[in-house]
Amino acid sequence: MKLTHLRTNHVVQPLGLAMDRPVFSWTASDTPDKVQAAAQITVSVGDETVYDSGRREDLSSLGFEAPLDLLPRTRYDWTVIVWGDGGDTASASSWFETGKRDEPWQAEWIAADPAQAPFGDKEVQPLLAKDFSLRGEVASARAYVCGLGIYELEVNGKKAGDEYLLPGYHCYDFALEYQTFDVTDLLRAGENTMGLALGPGWYKGDMIFDRYHDLYGDTMQAICELHITYANGGEEVISSDGSWMAYPSPVTFSNIYDGEHFDANRMVPGWSAPGCAARSFGTVVRKEATPLVERRGPKIVKKKEFAPIEVIHTPKGETVLDFGQNMTGWVEFSVDAPAGQTVTLTYGEVMQNGCFYRDNLRTAKAEYIYVSDGTPQRVRPHFTFYGFRFVKVEGLEVVRPGDFAACHIRSDIDPIGHIETDNPRVNQLFHNAMWGQFDNFLDLPTDCPQRDERLGWTGDAAIISATACKNIYMPAFFHHFMENVREEQEYHDGAVPFYVPAPKKAKPGSTGIDVDPADFVSLPEGDMEAFAAAVAKYPEFQAAMEALPEGERNDFAVKVISENFSFEHGNRKGAAIWSDVATMMPWAVYENYGDRNLLRAEYPVMKAWVERMRQDDELDGGRGLWLRGRQLGDWLALDKPDPKDAENPFGATDLEYTASCFYFYSTELTGKAARALGYAGDAGDYAALSKKIRGAIVKEYFNPDGSFKIEGTQTACVLSLFFGIYPEGKKDAVLRQLMARLEAKNWHLDTGFCGTPFLCRALSDNGANATAYTLFLNDDYPSWLNEVKLGATTVWERWNSLLPDGSISGTGMNSLNHYAYGSIVDWMYRNMAGLNPSEEAPGYKRATICPMPDPRIRSVEMEMDTAAGLYEVSWRYDGEDLHYAVTVPFDCIADLILPDGRVEKLTAGSYTF
Known about the structure:
By secondary structure, the chain is α+β, with helices and mostly antiparallel strands. The protein has 18 helices and 42 strands. Strand 23 and strand 24 form a beta hairpin.
């Protein structure tokens, strides 16, 4: 037997990770035994055992919480022993280390002194440093650090740790996450220096659509506490205070959207090493009211480097590097140029007419500008990142591809699933979906990594969560996001904003008038009567318009509607799908990883969201419908074409029907969570509420024969089938309507955010598997494989982001790296390959394997390194004959359902059929 994947709170050997109590998990393999008979966990500090579970039969490998009251700044070693049912046994050990926990900080927040030039300008980025002397050999040293907006820590001239873009992106108005660094090997007896380089980042730089500046604060600042233990047992603490020095940084500009400017002539040689001779400036102590907390998610690290696959010389005379993959990160390069020479790198996703292109990034400049000091340097950005495949290089006479490397940056999470078929385009689609997730899982799940947005859109996260949990090991990453969701939800009266973190600061000059842009964007052009009727819905808006001279009203109206697109004013209303991340993500994590401790921690968020919708429902008479909220509906669907606005994002599916369907779904998921956690009262309550909502939707939106009272769009049918909402016995009637809608579109989809994630599953699960494959395998517009055919390496935001000739369809909202439609991969795992987790034994301790082949794909191989172990499922056609191979991991049971209806009950082992 072999034990692997030893994790504490779903992270391997976490250093300074926030936790109330440790939760241990592991995987057992390579044993002839079938199931785990017992296990034992012991935890020690040094030579002292502080916890021993004893040998227990109920100790789950998916997550065992040890009842330990953790001490601050303490390393804990833990060992797990596993016994199999046949006598095989194994043990393995790991460790975790706590941060400061509730220990008071000795350090103080500091910033460059604004009374000293050049720091009177708060945009000047500072280097903060402290010289200190150590009196002997260092046994261990930990630095506890937070810097705002983004920081890098250096000790004696070397970068500390392997992390970037610290402290990451989170709700800075509720908590400030600090990081723990092991700097033992960077220190030495005698003279030392510790330095912090600061940039504005998400905290202070331009963010959100209208370019909010100083969103969370107007001063770059840091706090640092270095705890040293000497070899002789002595201890010392060195803290940030007013004695630190400040230098102006050679980074003269940085911004998440626009990039970074670096002037090597302004470098401060040795600023983070002893003996720096440059002129320094003073620092001041600041007060920061927002509490410091230990880091709550995985690190942001460099995962891979790419060499250019081609140097392109364009018709415009540009030199462009093609790295072959759309990715998140930056380019590092070597430069040896005369002093004063400027080298500019500009980042883009796509070429147009053979030339470099970045217009779809909107206002984001996405550039890196380097001014040489005449010495050879290896250069990279420090306080920004880019989404790109192509990089235009200017300022170098000769561009040598070997001097450049594209660095892929993401959270430190790794793939666990893989699917390969005999169809190369399908394989590329899987690759694209995986990379879309990699690129947008940078501390928080974002919508896109490249344009002037890069926000934690909750709708995108909700619909990708089930897929992501199969592709990548997600529990710690998603829990970090849910902690931010919880904070925003508490602030927004139970609603979940459109994106997390959410802005709460009005832009100077903001009107402060709250309207729903959906009431205006779809109005016929020039129809002033319709416009006046829309304005009349908002008395404050109408009064303000009437108070203005006639010639100023149009500009004012545009301003009101535009600033409401930032959703700043609508976050307390909630929205179907977007706010449903509160239920969909926790359930996806529980279903795929089986850790009840995480579900218990996130259940209050699930419950609060359902109760918020129920509150709205009661205000409207308690019929079981959700008629409020700020709905976007089937976003980016293709079933409401507007010849006057090709980029109109609103679909045709009724907004209140959509909202009520997701009211039902969230209530049902919360009821399931309550049952899993043993909350019998809540489980019964939500079961009754789900039944009421289903009945109300059927009464309001369906005719007795199963036809719709509203427009029966593809998405309307899909939601009905997937959620099981239709008149008694009329499922087939709804399916026939969906098939008719598909046939009318020549068997192509026109669904958006609401319908697409469930479309193929609704078909395959309801007897229309061949149609699901038809949609899946289409390679003309609109389809998944159309993107592949046009050269995509990630998933697009729109079905038509590029037109058939390769030209971009528009620039207003057109990302080539959006993961939402990659949710089709969930169908690939569940239906094509057939692997499904069980609600009764989640985390794949028990699974149903029901492959649903189609002869248009001749072979499929799937593997998933689940929390319970490695599953493998494959099928292939040999002529008309089908052959299956299945591997079930140790301590798991699977029901294999074969095409003829036979059910084979499989224990651990490998099988062929």
